[in-house]
Amino acid sequence: MARPLTASIDLEALRHNYRLACECAPHSQALAVIKANAYGHGALACARALESLAPAFGVASIEEADALRDGGIESPVVLLEGFFDPAELQDIAHRDYWCVVHAQWQLEALLAAELSAPITVWVKLDSGMHRLGFQPADLPVVWQRLAASSHVSGLRLMTHFATAELMDTALFQQQAATAQSTAHQLNADICFANSPATLCRPEVHGGWNRPGIMLYGASPLEGENDLSRRLKPVMTLSSRIIAVQQLEAGEPVGYGGRFVTTRPSRIAVIACGYGDGYDRHAPDGTPVLVDGIRCGLVGRVSMDMMTVDITDVPSADIGTTVTLWGRGPNEACLDINEVARYCDTISYTLLTGVLPRVPRHYP
Ligand SMILES: *Cc1c(COP(=O)(O)O)cnc(C)c1O
Fold first, then answer.
1. Which of 138, 199, 118, 196 is nearest to 162 (CA)?
2. CB atoms within 10 A of CB 151
3. pLDDT class for 125, splitting at 50, 70, 90?
4. What positions are modified (N6-(pyridoxal phosphate)lysine) (predicted)?
5. N or C: which end of the chain has fewer CB within 10 A?
6. Which helix (H) or strand (E) holds 182?
7. Å from CA of 338 to ligand 1 middle
């Protein structure tokens, strides 16, 4: 029998979430962001599942784009950070990738290149996050130079929000105002909204939006709203109990003896550890579902295993299904955001952190 740990990917849920992103913004096209192996879900499988719905895909590098083209995806693919080396420009033109330009060196390289075909360019404005993009004062000249170039076949304005998911909206309001006034000045087609802005900031929806995490069914919002509640989890990470320890009170469990039993306990050993991408920082009490029933992790996560207190689930035994996040047996569900909160992280790191040794199943 194979090691029981798998990541089961529900492509119908992915399509449902994509349609929800479109419903949130009925006047926008949604660029499906599938960078980082579709947030751990398998980029090619997700692209194929969304191909008939999404007009374009977003990735972080030409290597990620090539993997889609080589797999037969013909839709436009946006390089969200543009190129890292001007030598990529030939392939960008040749394979018809859409390219972000966020810095002066990229602008000069693009204008100076000899290209076999013109490129669709998404110009990035730094509206206040101070990561990538041109300053608002510099943008008009950048825009004019690109618009005048025979290397450019289409131009779009984008920016990225630092805080669209938060209740405190001061920085978001400032970024939105900066981005909107720049867009107005240039009469530009815009793409501003990530998942949180797609879900709860309709005022910045544009001709395009760029949802990522919401497609995978994890809400990025600080609080929920009616739309985010309709998201369906796409990945279910599940395994099985491979051993059970019957312990007296006062016995340590696992590395460092971090957890010590306070009562006679049944401790289950689960085949899943940090060598699979499960967060080693998970504290005692981090929820898992044992046959659909909530139990708590106890003791440190090991490389290939973790331990869970199943004292209160007497029916659980070797072979019982354990759900680390996603959908469990008997209609049970464990929200990845809850696991992330225990681990003091976000759903994005848990999903992208699932390592290649965990087989992805597409039922
Ligand atoms: C990753 C990314 C997104 C998607 O962000 P989510 O929070 O996952 O929706 C959108 N735009 C850019 C530029 C990105 O890099």
1. 196
2. 17
3. very high
4. 35
5. N
6. helix 170-186
7. 21
The SS3 call for residue 208 is strand
Give me the pLDDT at residue 129, please: 97
Beta carbons within 8 Å of 44's beta carbon, 6+ residues apart: 67, 68, 71, 73
**pLDDT score of 229:** 96
In short, whether 102's Cβ falls inside 6 Å of ligand 1 is no
What are the binding residues? Answer: 131, 303
Q: Which atom of ligand 1 is nearest to the CA of 211?
A: 9
* CA 94–ligand 1 middle distance (angstroms): 25
328 lines ligand 1 (CB under 6 A): no
What's at 17, amino acid-wise? N
pLDDT digits (tens, 9 = 90+) for 287-324: 999 999 999 999 999 999 999 999 999 999 999 999 99
Atom nearest to 33 CA in ligand 1: 4
Q: What is the mean pLDDT of residues 21-39?
A: 98
Cα–Cα distance, 55 to 318 (Å, whole number): 47
Rg of the Cα atoms in the chain: 23
Ligand 1 neighbourhood includes 212 CB (under 6 angstroms): yes
Whether 232 is a known active-site residue: answer no
Report how far ligand 1's centroid is from the alpha carbon of 287 (Å).
Answer: 28
Range of lowest pLDDT (46-50, 86-90, 163-167, 280-284): 163-167
- pLDDT reported for residue 1: 74
Active site residue 35: yes
CA angle 304, 330, 339 (to 5 degrees): 45
Residue 134 DSSP class: B
Cα gap 242→30, rounded to integer Å: 43
Q: Is the separation of the CB atoms in 17 and 196 below 8 Å?
A: no
Mutate to test the pocket of ligand 1, among 210, 213, 231, 347 (most ligand atoms within 8 A of CB): 210
Report whether residue 217 contacts ligand 1, using a CB cutoff of 6 Å: no
> What mean pLDDT do residues 166-170 have?
92
- The torsion angles phi and psi of 161, rounded to 5 degrees, stand at -95, 140
Instruction: Please report the DSSP string for 1-37 in residue order.
Output: -----EEEE-HHHHHHHHHHHHHH-TTSEEEEE-HHH
